[in-house]
Write a structure and sequence with these properties.
Elements lengths: L2 H4 L5 H8 L9 E4 L6 H9 L4 E6 L2 H11 L6 E5 L5 H7 L5 E7 L4 H5 L25 H7 L2 H12 L4 H14 L5 H10 L3 H4 L6 H12 L1 H14 L1 E11 L2 H14 L19 E3 L9 H6 L7 E7 L5
Parallel strand pairs: 1-2, 1-4, 2-3, 4-5
Antiparallel strand pairs: 5-7, 6-7
Amino acid sequence: MNLRDIHTPVLLDRCVELLAPALQREGAVLVDATLGMGGHSEAFLERFPGIRLIGLDRDQDALRIAGERLAPFGDRVTLVHTVYDGIADAISSTGLHSVDGILFDLGVSSLQLDEADRGFAYSQDAPLDMRMDQSIGTTAADVLATYSEGQLRRIFERYGEEKLSGRYARAIIEARAQAPILRSGRLVEILIAATPYSAQRSGHPAKRVFQALRIEVNSELSVLERAIPAALGRLRVGGRIVVMSYQSLEDRIVKREFADAVASTAPAGLPVELPEHAPRFRLLVKGAEQASPEEIARNPRATPVRLRAAERIREVA
């Protein structure tokens, strides 16, 4: 299996361009907080022969595959099994306090989407698992079996931004009374049957529900809300962070945390901004960047990506 053939890293050249100024010194440390199959990490290790890499992932299959892929780089690579809100502890475990670069490539990975038995893809019938770390936690089937109609409606609304949340929640409650909903194919059937024909023309009925279930199972948004401030806090002056999001809920969190980081803390009306109130970070891109039509043509999974980046410009006293 050639991983370079099956996994094309999203916005790789742009990530390299943005992080490069922070990785020029010998011994610079890059944290890939969402290692996946190691595509981004491999490229950085090749292009910056003086850097060390700390790679994080909650998915043990991903760590195994990335470990094989990155083995040629020897002791320049340290892999850590953790959710990315554990980034501060992961950095400390290597004996470091701060790092030079941090990369987040959020959302479900190519590995998870492409392995049918993980249950992430509504296009393939599989057990409804959806755990990114299959060693712990509640599965999507558990959620469908135990949540009340109100709880299901809430997560479909909040995490899927699904307009038919109430209809889908009722349909699931009715269906599970007849038999447990254990496979993705069965859930898709229930959702299609509950969708008015006019609404089916605006996209697959299962897309937003599957997204909502995945986010709920993996606590993705609450993890991200903890992870971004933790990551910002571990960047040295001159250090840079790049975050790629694939849906609006993630991007809103990143946008908010970056806005806080680049804001002055000076009280309103203060005639002169004191140094201790100056912004800690500066933004490296205006708004959120998207993939070019050429990149999307090469790699359709880049279609929804939104990239944001920032640089630390001041230590906190």
